[in-house]
Amino acid sequence: MFTGIVQGTAKIVSIEEKELFRTHIAELPEELLPGLALGASVAHNGCCLTVTAIDGNRVSFDLIKETLRVTNLGDLQQGDVVNIERAAKFSDEIGGHLMSGHIMTTAEICKIIQSENNREIWFKIQDPAQMKYILHKGFVGIDGISLTVGDVTKSKFCVYLIPETLERTTLGAKKLGHRVNIEIDPHTQAIVDTVERVLAQREAAAAAMLDSDTQQA
């Protein structure tokens, strides 16, 4: 599990390409290395990856076909930078919201509005079916960052970013057309799915009762 509070950024110093598979070697900040071991979980742009090798501050992670398909990690090139968060511990402060590190879809940055002290960024989700989980003032994970949803339209949503977020994460360097990873808040997803299921059951029961009354008449 993760909290959506980015602990640092890491440069991808090497990429080993294989068939439907690749290995990223990232140069992690020194403060994130203590206690790091093979098999540990580390989020890259919000996507949970497993440590496969450690050579000083250079840490290797394997990405399978599904990870490359669903996330923006397959777009990365040598020299690119990713947001990093190590797995949360039971004693850690939850400053954002609980996140699993499982990316549902990606979104494209379609508008950026800059003001004096914050930045408003609009996103268009790749999978429109996921928009039902994006609610005004709800939570969303964007490239591993826990953020509060601002305005929402039928196909787009925005977030408001303070200078600290822009400075500490990769969002400060994002441009129009860039893709970001999206993780839906699991609590919101559970509530929306439950309401949809209950309403569908009620509609089915009402239709069955109406059909029965029609046959009896």
UniProtKB/TrEMBL annotation:
**What molecular function terms (GO) are annotated for this protein?**
riboflavin synthase activity
* UniProt pathway annotation: Cofactor biosynthesis; riboflavin biosynthesis; riboflavin from 2-hydroxy-3-oxobutyl phosphate and 5-amino-6-(D-ribitylamino)uracil: step 2/2
Lumazine-binding repeats span 1-97, 98-195
An example of a Gene Ontology cellular component annotation for this protein is: cytosol
Q: Which InterPro entries match?
A: ATP_synth_asu-like_sf, Lumazine-bd, Lumazine-bd_dom, Riboflavin_synthase-like_b-brl
Q: Spell out the reaction equation it catalyses.
A: 2 6,7-dimethyl-8-(1-D-ribityl)lumazine + H(+) = 5-amino-6-(D-ribitylamino)uracil + riboflavin
Keyword Repeat on entry: yes
EC number(s) reported in the record: 2.5.1.9
Which EC main class describes this enzyme? transferase
Q: Per the database record, which ranges form the Lumazine-binding domain? A: 1-97, 98-195
- What keyword terms does UniProt attach to this protein? Repeat, Riboflavin biosynthesis, Transferase
Source domain of life is: Bacteria
Q: Pfam family of this protein, just one?
A: Lum_binding
Does Lipid metabolism appear among the keywords?
A: no
Example of a GO biological process term? riboflavin biosynthetic process
- Job description of the protein: Catalyzes the dismutation of two molecules of 6,7-dimethyl-8-ribityllumazine, resulting in the formation of riboflavin and 5-amino-6-(D-ribitylamino)uracil.
The identity of this protein, by name, is Riboflavin synthase
Native species: Pantoea latae
